[in-house]
Design goal:
The protein has 360 residues and is of the alpha+beta class. It folds into 3 domains: 2-159, PAS domain (Beta-Lactamase, 2-Layer Sandwich); 161-224; 225-360, Histidine kinase-like ATPase, C-terminal domain (Heat Shock Protein 90, 2-Layer Sandwich). The chain has helices at residues 2-11, 13-26, 53-62, 82-86, 95-98, 104-113, 161-192, 196-220, 230-242, 265-282, 327-338; strands at residues 67-71, 77-80, 117-126, 129-141, 147-156, 227-229, 250-255, 259-261, 291-298, 304-310, 342-348, 351-358. It is elongated, with a radius of gyration of 32 Å.
Length: 360
């Protein structure tokens, strides 16, 4: 709509003259305001523009679609409506400089061919993300067939990163609430059960859901980048686990900055949790405190390497970690496989070290 109004306004000599006289006064004479539309040669047709110039002026300046007029051979703005001024496009400034989503080639092509041009995949950076625009440039022809000016309009597309992020935040909040609800239900079920084995199983399930919830919160902040430095998350995760582990165990974390894809954060977190809990439960004599070391870095071959080590009594004779039937180690193997990694363990009388290598 704004594009059509702008074209009509430009072609109307009466409307152009009125704007030249009035718009500067409305804006208090500031060059950053709408500025005057230039006077042009009247069109031979009497359109509705000449019928009510005040209405067209108001529609054009107040339409929500950013609309600007460029004259001459460069990209200097000679008119910008309120929507474009809000984006930083002002009279006397270069439109391309103030609005990076407008490709300079679009203006050049419109001048060269005298035909409307359009770009549907233009983006501009803003503090809260990246927005995408449907940008149109329409040449306004004089009576001699020469391009006298270019009408530029821009409409934000539904694929705008800002809008996309807003939707993701909404979805993320709902997922978080759902996970917390499930955790609460498991807690209630645990309290109502009198069977120790059932209580233990429900507590373990609740702990795993808590790990997923924490990892989910970490992934949302990194959705746009696609990767996240997992070192900080690993420290926070182990700090929380240290407060809830059975026995007075201490977790020592050594982590180098390491980027992981967003979709790997939850599986990685569950692998860490299962290995740490397994060490806390089985590595040390009942009730004895112990140190669990968690290291994150790189292997000699460049793979991302996670190591969980203890100074306990070692694995039971004959137990192979890659074949163990316990639920925790099954979970570890499943997620290591999902991340296309490898799992190995070295054990002796002075402790056990479990190593997970993931492709970089």
């Amino acid at each position: 709509m704004a594009h059509t109004i702008a074209a009509m306004a430009y072609r109307s000599a009466e409307f152009g003259a009125d704007l030249a006289a009035d718009l500067g006064a409305e804006a208090g004479g500031e060059r950053g305001a709408a500025g005057p539309l230039p006077t042009t040669t009247p069109d031979t047709g009497a359109g509705f523009a000449s019928g009510d110039p005040a209405m067209l002026r108001s529609l054009l300046d107040q339409t929500p679609t950013p609309t600007a007029l460029v004259e001459g051979g460069g990209d200097l703005c000679s008119f910008a409506n309120a929507a474009f001024r809000a984006l930083g496009v002002v009279v006397g400034a270069g439109v391309v400089e103030r609005f990076p989503a407008l490709p300079p080639t679009l203006l050049d092509e419109a001048r060269r061919t005298g035909l409307p041009q359009r770009s549907r995949a233009s983006g501009d950076r803003v503090p809260d993300g990246e927005r995408f625009w449907d940008v149109r440039v329409t040449p306004m022809m004089g009576v001699n067939g020469v391009v006298r000016g270019l009408i530029v309009t821009a409409e934000e597309t539904p694929d705008s990163a800002v809008e996309h992020d807003r939707r993701l935040r909404d979805v993320s909040h709902r997922v978080k609430n759902t996970l917390q609800l499930v955790s609460s239900l498991l807690t209630l079920q645990t309290l109502s059960s009198k069977d120790p084995e059932v209580r233990r199983a429900l507590q373990n399930a609740g702990s795993r859901i808590g790990i997923v919830t924490q990892a989910h919160q970490r992934t949302h902040a990194a959705l746009r980048a696609g990767t996240v430095d997992i070192a900080g998350h690993l420290r926070e995760l182990c700090l929380e686990m240290e407060a809830t582990l059975p026995g007075a165990h201490r977790i020592q974390v050594t982590a180098q900055p390491t980027d992981l894809p967003v979709d790997a954060i939850i599986p990685f977190s569950l692998i860490v949790a299962e290995l740490v809990v397994n060490a806390a439960k089985h590595a040390f004599p009942s009730g004895a405190p112990g140190l669990i070391e968690v290291r994150l870095g790189r292997s000699d071959a460049g793979a991302i390497r996670l190591e969980v080590a203890d100074q306990g009594s070692g694995l039971p004779a004959g137990l192979e970690i890659t074949r163990a039937a316990t639920l925790g180690l099954k979970v570890v193997r499943a997620f290591v496989g999902q991340l296309r990694g490898t799992l190995s363990a070295a054990s002796g009388p002075f402790g056990t070290r479990v190593t997970v290598d993931l492709p970089a």
